[in-house]
Amino acid sequence: MPNDLITTLRDRRHNVWEQAKDLADKAADENRHFSAREQEHWTFLRAELDALDESISRIDKGEQRAQAAAGAYDALAGLPAAAGAPRSLSAVDKELDQAFRSAILEKNPAPIVVHPDQTQAPWQPGLQYRDLTKGTATQALPVSVYNRVVMHLVESSAVLAAGATVLNTDSGEVLQVPKSTAFVTSAITAEGVSITESDPTLGKVDLGAYKYSSFFQISSELATDSRSDLLGFLAKQAAVSLASAFGPHLVTGDGSAKPRGLITDSTLGVTGPSGTGTSFGAQGTAGQGTDLLNDLYSSLAEPYTRSPSLAWLMRTPTLGAIRKLKATTGELVGNQFAGPPSVPGAQATMLGAGVFLDPSMAAMANTAKSTVLADMARYFVRIAGGLRFERSDDYAFQSDLISFRTLIRLDAALVDTTGASKYFVHTT
Questions:
Q1: 332: closest CA among 279, 284, 270?
Q2: C-alpha torsion sign, points 97, 127, 383, 356
Q3: In sequence order, what are the residues at sequence separation of 6 or more whose Cβ sits closer than 8 angstroms to the Cβ of residue 373?
Q4: CA–CA separation, 170 vs 260, rounded Å?
Q5: What pLDDT digit, counting tens, does each position of 16-68 carry?
Q6: Pairing of the two strands 353-357 and 267-271
Q7: Which one of 49, 152, 294, 354 is CB 3.0 to 4.6 Å from 346, fit for a cystine?
Q8: Using 50, 70 and 90 to split pLDDT, how confident is the model at 138?
Q9: For residues 381 and 165, is the Cβ–Cβ distance under 8 A?
Q10: What are the strands, taking DSSP E only, across 138-200?
Q11: Does residue 42 belong to any structural domain of this protein?
């Protein structure tokens, strides 16, 4: 579509250019200035040429950005690069590796600060990176370092992988996310009758910035002699450590000196009947088995169930219990209900939504909230100031070790608490 539009605009520009050229040639052949009418026409044609040039340039740059973004997302998702897409990943990785080696071997203590600038991932509709303020033009390294770290964070946190909305800000002051809790209502009003007032109700969610950090050391011999991928090593070590601390808070954080987890602000969708303390009951009994999961799906309002970022969250044993649900004939009904994954990153698909597994979800037990179904785009994760790498050669000088620390400031909360996320709770 963009190519067709550019072609149309270029054809139009060529036509306008020819009109302007004919006008100028005619005046030159007759060795005279433009008449008042010709001058007006000439001014109109030049203005149209400028407008067409601007439109063509804007669309062309937009298409280039889209292609570059698609290539970056494909690389992040582990997908093969599209035909004709930029293939600069190896060069970037090589440059980054050299930058890290330079920081290590040349003992450069300057922090390496990286800011993400992704927009929306096509393979994860809900996962978004939005720059709320402009980043500096002097950032130390290209953004693909951050991509690599985010990849490991996504792998370690099902909440992020399921499509949470991620906001990136340059600083860490409180970020207020406005939300509506009630809409204006309308009604039929008879002739001559006063219209009833109905005002919207607005609220807000405050997102701060809790500092998560990791610290590790490597020997100078490893830095000097190793031919391994230092960039991958450093990124993975930092990311796994950060995710281990931050990931559980995305699920069960209580908001007290930590983020508010998804479960914390979710509302009750379905309560299991008696006898479902550690299971979903018997498939052959009405109101148990997959009936409970269908009821949980039905507890969400239609706008949420239509969302492309609708997702299930549970532990691996919970998905296993669902898949083992059997009809009275012994047929594995649950295995068909939790079918093969059709959503990238998901382990299964149920009722059209991806199933994401997170070890921080509660195990099936009495009164436990083992399963949640949510429009994950309504869960916001705020990253303040990007990801910061810092090194020190002095801290462990006597041991000839190079010390690294990684800092990231984060907060999270469910911004739509009117029913965007529902959970299933087991009963004794």
A1: 284
A2: negative
A3: 269, 296, 297, 300, 310, 311, 312, 313, 353, 421, 422, 423
A4: 21
A5: 888 888 878 887 788 778 788 888 888 888 888 888 788 777 777 666 665 65
A6: unpaired
A7: 354
A8: very low
A9: yes
A10: 165-169, 175-182
A11: yes
Task: Tell me the pLDDT of the chain averaged across its residues.
Answer: 78
Report yes or no on 22 lying in a domain: yes
Q: DSSP class of residue 109?
A: -
Q: Shortest CA distance to 254 belongs to which of 379, 381, 361, 412?
A: 412
**CA atoms of 240 and 413, how far apart (whole Å):** 22
| DSSP state letters, 73-132 | HHHHHTPPPPTT----HHHHHHHHHHHHHHHHHTT----EEE-----B-TTSTT-EEEES
Residue 13 within any structural domain of the chain: yes
In the 8-state DSSP scheme, what is residue 377? G
| Structure confidence at residue 237 (pLDDT) | 73
Residues 175, 207 contacting (CB under 8 angstroms): yes
The pTM score is: 0.64
Centre a 10 Å sphere on the Cβ of residue 191 and count the other Cβ atoms it contains.
4
Residues written for the chain: 428
* Residue 279, in any domain of the structure: no
pLDDT tens per residue across span 300-346: 999 999 999 999 999 999 999 999 999 888 888 988 899 889 888 89
Domain of residue 64: give its range.
2-77
The one-character DSSP state at 392 is E
**Interatomic CA distance for residues 348 and 342, integer angstroms:** 7
Please check whether residue 196 is in contact with residue 218, taking contact to mean a CB–CB distance below 8 angstroms. Answer: no
**What is the distance between the alpha carbons of residues 198 and 143, in angstroms, rounded to a whole number?**
47
- pLDDT confidence bin for 288, thresholds 50/70/90: very high
Q: How many domains does the chain have?
A: 1
For the chain, percent helix, then strand, then coil, each to nearest 5? 40, 25, 35
Tell me the β-bridge partners of 215.
405
User: E-assigned strands of 186-327?
Assistant: 201-207, 210-219, 267-271, 310-314
Residues above pLDDT 90, as percent of the chain: 31
CA-closest candidate to residue 104, choices 232, 212, 231, 215:
231
Higher pLDDT, 72 or 183: 183
